[in-house]
Amino acid sequence: MKNTTCLLLLLFCTHVxxxxxxxxxxxPGEIIIHLEPGASLQNALSELDRSAPGVFSLKNTLAKDWNxxxxxxxxxxxxxxxMLAIARRVPGIHSAQWNxxxxxxxxxxxxxxxxxxxDMTLINAPEVWETSTGGLTPAGDTIVVAVLEKGALLTHPxxxxxxxxxxxxxxxxxxxDDGNGYKDDFGGWNPQTQADDLGTKGFHGTAVxxxxxxxxxxxxxxxxxxWNIKLMNISGMDYESEIIQGYEYVGKMRRIYNQTNxxxxxxxxxxxxxxxxxxxFADDHPIWCALYDSLGKxxxxxxxxTANDNxxxxxxxxxxxxxxxxxxxxxxxxxxxxxxxxxxxFGSISIDLGAPGTDTYSTYNSGGQGxxxxxxxVIGGCSAAAPHVTGGIGLLYSLxxxxxxxxxxxxxxxxxxxxxxxILNNTEPNTTLAGITTTGGHLDLGNALDGVRKICDGxxxxxxxxxxxxxxxxxxxxxxxxxxxxxQPYNFRVFNMLGQQLYExxxxxxxxxxxxxxxxxxxxxxxxxxxxxxIGRGNAIKxxxxxxx
Length: 549
Description:
Elements: H1 2-22, E1 26-35, H2 41-51, E2 56-63, E3 68-73, H3 80-89, E4 93-100, E5 103-104, H4 118-122, H5 125-129, E6 143-148, H6 203-213, E7 230-234, H7 240-259, E8 267-273, E9 275-278, H8 286-296, E10 301-305, H9 313-316, E11 318-319, E12 328-334, E13 353-356, E14 360-365, E15 374-379, H10 382-397, H11 402-405, H12 412-424, E16 428-429, E17 441-442, H13 445-456, E18 465-472, E19 477-483, E20 490-495, E21 501-507, E22 516-519, E23 529-537, E24 540-548
Parallel strand pairs: 6-7, 6-8, 8-10, 10-12, 12-13
Antiparallel strand pairs: 1-3, 1-4, 2-3, 5-9, 9-11, 14-15, 16-17, 18-19, 19-22, 20-21, 20-23, 23-24
Helix pairs in contact: 6-10, 7-8, 10-12
């Protein structure tokens, strides 16, 4: 019994020592507090001063709309735990935590010559690109994804065309032109500098942005999951206080967009966080986790990368991927063979799905700060897996299916859940993820497209196809069964085998109508032979040979 007791005590002490050694770095003397709705900041500060005179003071307002504030604390090595406990006991303070520093979740690239984008094929992005390459919703909203990073080289020639700009703001005039509470936020926001600069323009953020939305079909380098998405710069993400401020900016811009019916703000549909804390539980970071519900209520889904370690995060913890919000999607890493990477976290409760991350080729910054060199290289780890999902969310919003996103402004919560379900309910089954993720599969945008088709209840949103051709009414009429990716004018033409055009007619498909159209093309006097029937729009043309016997 004595030996057992000693063994248990030894294990307990070892566990405590490990927990202490793996605790994330934090900024000394800073505590973040989240007030209850309606609670008075002044009353909370008075209560804190009564419990510990002269120790607590207000340092900064992090998110006024969400009642989150940063306190300065006169702490010593002996009183730090006591000070946090005092803050958590004060009436009106919902939660309190230290201001921790986050770490980027990547593996250093190791293959400078690898350039093929097998990751896009693995998630079946090309199948969706036949239907849409991102950019606008059916209602004409410009789709925006917010990327939270230390910084990114958004002047990279493959990223600059897709950078988001706040066109309602005049840069550099020191005025809050659009009335959103931020001055000169023309190019996004950096809480560290209180400006719209790009922060530390390293390789990590540059690569993450490229996976989500490098400009496609421009004869320049690579393509992202979206060819035409807008990338919102949220830079300066080092500490939780800055993450809170970054998320608040994103949430406010989407709320303004919803309230003004798109006249101001930004139609942000997703955020990406390829950073976090290893072996940390959501209970110790309640304020950070609560932000995802706040963003979700505005219609924003958030995506995060889990740990680059083969651990069960349900057991050992991880931030932010143990956050329980229904609007947060946690992603682990699979390699190019669709096998879970050895150094990637998992958890049947916390981790939702896998996505390709190992050796992902993307945009890159080969130079140092102040000496930026736009280039291309590989990034690995869960940092690269998460942006595939983030980009996928943006791509789904662009599909030509009006019911799928028609309530994005009027009922943003329902719309965000619908998009989330299209991603998570249509993963590709993966035996290496079965039982260790909530879906048991990896990202498959082709499957998600099929899921959207079902939601559309008959709306044809697939790639352009000639499904069937019928000659009817004794040869006087041709019925063409078709599938189109959009509902703009198409041409129907008939050619003989010499290439001579015998017939042409233009028509515009109607959404949710029957997917066939009748043309008055008389075949009765045509000689026996083979004829070519085509439908097309611009360079997109599908043809079928039809014999007349």
